[in-house]
Amino acid sequence: MMKTRVSTLLGTEYPVIQGGMAWVADHHLAAAVSMAGGLGLIGAANAPAEWVRTQIQEVKKHTDKPFGVNVMLMSPYADEVAKVIAEEKVPVVTTGAGNPEKYLSLWKNQNIKVIPVIASVALAKRMERCGVDAVVAEGCESGGHIGESTTMTLVPQVVDAVKLPVIAAGGIGDGRGMAAALMLGAEGVQMGTRFVATSECHVHKNYKERLLRAKDIDTRVTGRNTGHPVRTLRNEMTKKYLELEASGATLEELEYLTLGALRKAVVEGDMKSGSVMSGQIAGLISNIMTCQEVIDEVTGDAQKIIAEHASRFL
User: Fold this and answer.
1) Predicted model pTM
2) For residue 313, pLDDT beyond 70
3) Which of 128, 130, 112 is nearest to 120 (CA)?
4) Which of 13, 223, 261, 294 has the highest CB neighbour number within 10 Å of its CB?
């Protein structure tokens, strides 16, 4: 057990959240993380509302532990997904790619905890004024869509700016990362890439194998010129994208290159033209573990590290 305001808020054994990764975070992974004492998330992404409902109901079949749904607010299905979440009384919602204010009363009426993912102090303050329950401060080391600030710089500034519990994300994949996040003032962590390399994650085997082979320098950020930067593992697609971006290609040309690219990687195992989203911690991951093993190792090591360093400097 590791109790903080985050674990108390979520009703979990540990203040650990699994990232709501599109095409990756389905009911299998969410249920496994929740059963292991963390908070599993279903990644709604651009999926239709009824798909999300089915995923929610499947999680409920496998566990009575708290779980959540991550809502991508730019999705054309966001309104319908928000209603399904309220109807199904999902315990927790995390949000990204937008502002969740329009759904707060709907969710709060069902006692749903709302936790936006933010990448700036200004947005954290705004979310606090709106009445959310906590925030995930996500640094640019994370996989997928990213902001500009690093986790090391963003987390303490957000902690100083709001009274809400802060969950750190981006570049966290082991006990050292969790210990560092807690020392920065966070009261929990969110991990995405580390949970991809688990036995309960149903991505294509090629995706997991590529992740295990990754080195510290193997991620690339595409889309900076368009204002929508995305971190993935380098491959032929990222090489071509960056070349087009540097040559001044239009937004339409760039979007055509990445159309359906995440599905290609996750479902079809296409490591050449697929979008193999990953955080910078990929180089730390060398084996496939169960979700229980990940959470036990990360939280156990974090507690040991904090205790050892506290005694060392006394």
Assistant:
1) 0.93
2) no
3) 128
4) 294
